[in-house]
Amino acid sequence: MTKRFYSTREVLKKIGISRNTLFLWFKNKKIPEVARDRNGHRVFSNKDIKVILAYKNRIVPPKE
Question: Does domain 8-56 have CATH number 2.40.50.100?
Answer without folding.
Answer: no
